Amino acid sequence: MPLQRRLPKRGFNNLFRKEYNIINVEDLNRFDANAEVDAVALKEKGLIRKKKDGVKLLGNGQMEHPVVIKVQRASRVAREKVEAAGGKIEII
Questions:
Q1: In whole angstroms, how far apart are CA 28 and each of 52, 76, 77, 88, 90?
Q2: pLDDT for res 18
Q3: 8 Å CB contact between 56 and 37
Q4: What gap in Å lies between CA 8 and CA 4, rounded to an integer?
Q5: What class has domain 14-91?
Q6: What parts of the chain have a pLDDT lower than 50?
Q7: pTM of the prediction?
Q8: What φ, ψ does residue 52 adopt, rounded to 5°?
């Protein structure tokens, strides 16, 4: 029998945790100015692969033009950068 099956499982695994697709602010530069960006548009551009519990926007990078983005979660820095560029974040 393989070793991983002989050893007991250790630790706690949360069955109710949520996994998010991670998108950075610099990834939004692939879209046109004032475009509406949601999970479907991100999948078409190849920024997310699998469907998870939602999309989380992080603040890595700079925005070149404003976009309207619809995500489940966003960091404080990401909100500031999007609003500074003239864009808008809608939390679904």
A1: 19, 16, 15, 12, 14
A2: 92
A3: no
A4: 8
A5: alpha beta
A6: none
A7: 0.76
A8: -115, -155
